[in-house]
Amino acid sequence: SQTIHQWPATLVQPVGSPLSLECTVEGTSNPNLYWYRQAAGRGLQLLFYSVGIGQISSEVPQNLSASRPQDRQFILSSKKLLLSDSGFYLCAWALPGGGLQPQHFGDGTRLSIL
Amino acid sequence: SQKIEQNSEALNIQEGKTATLTCNYTNYSPAYLQWYRQDPGRGPVFLLLIRENEKEKRKERLKVTFDTTLKQSLFHITASQPADSATYLCALSNTNAGKSTFGDGTTLTVKP
To answer: Which of A24, A66, B53, B67 is most enclosed, with most CB atoms within 10 A?
Structure first.
C-alpha cells in the first residue's frame, strides 16, 4: 500500500534562517506531488505541484521554493524565513489523472517562526 | 477569480441527526468535486468524489450531491456520531494536473 512521510512534525525557526522540509512517498510511481500551506481555521493554499522529476509549478509568489530530486521525494525550501512563513505545511500525492484522482496527505509540519 | 464558500459558521448537531454541509462556488466550472475530512493537527483524508455529470453519490452514511446549475454541493452525514466531529473540506478540480482549490472547511461537532 502507499504511504507518505513528512518530517519534522513541528519546527521552530528564527527569522532569517533557512528551511528544508522533506516529503517522501512509498508504494507508487510517478505520482503528482503537492505542497500546501494552511493558516489556522482556513483551507489549503496550494504552493507548488509537480508532475515529474525536476518539474515544479509555483502557484503563489513567495519566499519559498520546491524541488523534486527523485520520483517520490519532494522538498520545500527557503533561504531566509519570514514571520509570514509560519503555518501548517502539508505534502500530498495523487495518481496521475487530473482532478479525478483524490489527494493523499501527510500529517504535516507545524512551522513557527520567531 | 475562483471562490469557494463553505458554511461560514461551525455546525453543532445532536447525535443521531443528519448533518448537512454546504459548498458553494463561483467563477469556476469544475469537472470534479471532492470532500475531505480533517482532524486537528492532521492532514485531510479523502472521503468522496463526485463528477460534474453525477447528481448524487453515496458511501455508507455519507451522501454528496452536486448541482452545477446552482454551483453547489451538499454533504450529508446521516445518523451522525460524536466520532464524526471534525472539519470537512470541499475541493474543486478539473483535468489540469490534478490541481484542486479547497474551501476553508466547516467544523462539525456532534454532541452525544
So the answer is: A66
pLDDT confidence of residue B3? 86
- pLDDT bin (cut points 50, 70, 90) of residue B80 is very high
- Position A48 pLDDT exceeds 80: yes
pLDDT tens digits, B33-50: 999 999 999 999 999 999
C-beta atoms of A42 and B31 within 8 A: no
Answer whether B96 sits within 8 Å of A104, measured CB to CB: no
- Cell triple for residue A52? 515529474
- CB neighbour list of residue B100: distance below 8 Å, 6 or more residues apart: A46, A99, A103, B34, B91, B92, B93
Nearest CA among A86, A91, A62, A65 for reference residue A76: A65
Q: Residue A83: what are its φ and ψ, rounded to 5°?
A: -55, -35
Residue B64 has a pLDDT of 98
Looking at this protein, which amino acid is placed at residue A65?
Answer: S
For an interface test with B, the pick among A103, A105, A112 (most B C-beta atoms closer than 10 Å) comes out as A103
Residue A103 is nearest to which of B46, B94, B95, comparing CB atoms? B46
